[in-house]
Amino acid sequence: MGDYTRCVFGPPSPPISLVALVLFITLLCSFLGAIQDPSSLSVFFTLISLRSVATLQKKEYSDRLDGVLESRKKLIIPVAQDIGSPSVLIPAFSRGREALENAILLVDDDNSVRSVYGAFIQKAGFHVHMAESYTEALNIISSVNFDLIITDIHLGDNNGLNLVKEVHARELDTYILVITGYPDFQTVQEALRFGAFDYLSKPIRREDLILAIHRAMDHKAMRDERTRLRRDLQAIFRSVKDAIITVDTQLNILAVNQAADRLCQLNHQQVSQPMTTENNNNCIHHCREAVLKVLKTSNTVELTRISCEHADGSPLMINVTVSPLVDESDHTMGAVLVIRDETRIAALERDLNARRQFHRIVGQSATMQRIYGLIEDLSRVESTVLIHGESGTGKELVAEALHYESARRDNPLVKINCAALTDTLLESELFGHVRGAFTGAHQDKLGRFELADKGTIFLDEIGDISPQMQTRLLRVLQEREFERVGDTRTRQVDVRVVAATNVNLKERVEQKKFREDLYYRLKVVVIPLPPLRQRRDDIPLLINHFINRFNTLFNKEINGVTEQVLKTFMNNNWPGNIREIQHVIEHAFVVCHQPVIDMDHLPPEFRDSPIFQPVQTAHNPLSTTYDQDAKLPNSTDQQSGPAHQLSEKEQIVIALNQTGWVKARAARLLGFSRSTMYRKMRSYNLEDAPESW
Q: What sign does the CA torsion over 117, 118, 124, 128 have?
C-alpha cells in the first residue's frame, strides 16, 4: 500500500533547493532535446501552455470564490435585481434523487487508484461513493445527488469528458474535478467549458487533492446559499400583493414582481427599459416625480391615495412609497417603489363616509366627506370651479385633487398666484408675450394658459386682480382664446379653469370691485372650505399626519403630543388654519428631543396662553386618594379663594399627593410628559416623597 501511495501521490517532498535544481535540469534537457526535434519542441510548449491555462483557470475560480465570499454582506442587491426574471435558474437536482451532505462520487477504472483516493477522501471527513465505469457512474447519479464528482479522463471504453457533458446536460447541481495522467490542452479546455470546476494531473499529492476538494465544496456552498436566498426572495415577492419595482439612477427598470403587472401593467418584457409613460401606465408620472426626488435627496417619499386608471379603464386608488436603493457604501444606486392598491378600502370608506384622507387632503369630519364627494362629482364634468376659503385651509390641495381625479390627470396642472404679480407681469405670465413687446422681452414666451393646454390651470387669489385683467380673463373663460402681449394672432387653448379666493366675491361685486359677469362665470360650482375652527374633529388627525411627515423629514421618532398639548390645540381658534398648525408642529419638532411633544416645545404664544392653566375642580387638593379623572385646582378654586395663586410647585405637590407620589400618574394629571415631570421635580427638589409617606 505504501509503495502504491508513493506511485500515485508521488514520493515524499525533497528539500526545495533539490526540487528546483531537478526541475531546472529537466526543463533544460527537454528544451535542448526539442531543438533537435521540432515535434518535441511543440509538445514542450504545449505542456507549458496547458499548465498556464489551467493555472489561470484555477485563479479565475479562486477569484470567483473570493468574490462570492465577499458578496455575502451585500447579497441582497444582486438578488433583488433577479426578482421575477425568467432567466434565473433554480436547479432541479433534488427531484426524486437522494441528497447526501458532503457526498463525493469517485470515478476511476483502476481499483487501486479508487482505494487510495477513496481512503484519503473519507479520512478528510467526506462521504465517498465509488464507480469503476462511465455506465456505473450514470446509474449512481440518477438516484443520488452528489456535491462533487471526481473523475478520471480515461474510463476504459469511455472517458470522463462524456460524464462531464452528461452532468451538464442533466443540469445537475454538482461540481466536477477532472483527473488526468496525460494532460491534453484541448481535452481539459473542453471539460472546463462544459462545467468542470478544476482539473488535477497525476501524480497527485494528497494535500493537493484535499485542497482542491475543499475549494470546490466551499465554492458550491456559497453558490447554494446564494441560490437559496434568491429562490426564497422570489417566492416572497411572488406572494406579495404590493407591486415592487426597482429602477436605477437613469430611471431604467431593473426588476418587477407579478403584482406590478397586475397594478401597473409592467411585466418582465419592460425590464431594462426606461420608466416612461410609454409603459402603458397612465399614472407613471407620479412615480417618476417621486423617484427623481428620492434620487436627488436620498430620502423616502410617500404618495398617499393617488388616483389612476387600470388598463381596463377601471379607477385605481394607490399608495406609493419610494425609497433609495443603496450599495454597501451607502451610495444611492437607484430606487425601490412599493405600490399598494387601496381601491377597495377607499370605496368602503366612501360608502361609509369614513374617509380620513383624499389625495393630499386630510380630514374625516362630515364637512370634509361632503367635499370629497363633490370633488368626485366634478371629476366627471369640465365645469369651471371656484374654491372659497380662508388662507391656509388647503385650496391648492383641492385644486390638485380636482385635476388628478379628472380625465385631464395625464396633462399639466399649471398654478399661478394672481395676487403676487403686477398687472403687466400677470398678463405676460398668463398669456405670454412676443419678442420686443416691452422692454426686456428678448424672446417669445409661452403663457400659463398655453402651458396648461389639455390640462388644468389654477388661478389662486383671483379676487385681487384688477378690472383690466378681469376683462381679459373673462374672454378666455368664455371663448377659450387670447392673444400674447404684443401679438395680433389669436390662439386657442383647451383648458379647465379652477380659481380660488379668500375674499367674498359677492361683496366685491356689490362694491363694484369685481365684474359681475366674471363672478358668475367663475362660480359655476363653488367648493366652500371650512376653517379649522369649524372642523375641530379633524385636529387629532392633522396632528398625526404632520407628526408622521416630520418624523421622516427630521429623521426622528416622535410618537405624539401630551394631553395638555392636545387640549390646547383643540381650544385654539387657529386663524392661520391648517398652515398654522403645520408650522406649530414643525417648530415643536425642531426643539423636541423626546418621544412626546409637550407644552415646552410649542411657540411662546401657546405656552403663555390661558389655555395652559390647569382646569379647576372641586376635588380636595389635599386628598391622598388618586382619582383617574381628577383635575388640579387653579387660582379660582373656591377652597383656595380668589386671592390665592397656586404656584407650579404647589400644583406638582398636590398632583403627587393625589397619586401617591406615582410620577407617571401625576404627569398625566398635570398634562406633562414624564421627562418634563422629572425635570420639574428636580428643579423644585421634589425627587423623593416626604417621610410621612
A: positive
How far, in Å, are 308, 449, 450, 453, 464 from residue 494 at the CA level?
Answer: 22, 9, 9, 5, 25
Task: State the pairing for strand pair 144-145/385-388.
Answer: unpaired
Higher-confidence position of 615 and 424: 424
Beta bridge partners of 527: 387
CB 350 within 8 A of CB 296: no
- 435, containing H or E segment: none
Task: With residue 494 as reference, give the H or E element that holds it.
Answer: none
**Cis omega (within 30 of 0) on the bond before 203?**
yes
What is the per-residue pLDDT across 31-80, written as a single tens digit (0 to 9) for each?
455 444 444 444 444 444 444 444 444 454 445 444 433 443 333 333 33
Task: Choose among 403, 680, 395: nearest CA to 529.
Answer: 395
Burial (CB count <10 Å: 0-12, 13-18, 19+), residue 25: exposed
Closest C-alpha among 629, 641, 640 to residue 669: 629
CA distance 270 to 252: 9
663: Cβ contacts below 8 Å, ≥ 6 apart = 656, 674, 677, 678, 681
Say if residues 212 and 62 touch (Cβ distance below 8 Å): no
Q: Is the pTM of this model over 0.70?
A: no
- 3-class secondary structure, 92: coil
Question: Is-contact 217 68, C-beta < 8 A?
Answer: no
The amino acid occupying position 43 is V
Which residues partner with 158 through β-bridges? Answer: 155
Report residue 622 as a C-alpha cell: 389635599
d(Cα 438, Cα 487) in Å, to the nearest integer? 11
Please give the sequence-ordered ranges of beta strands (E in DSSP) within 447-488, or none if there are none.
456-460, 481-483
* Residue 617 · residue 632 · CB < 8 Å: yes
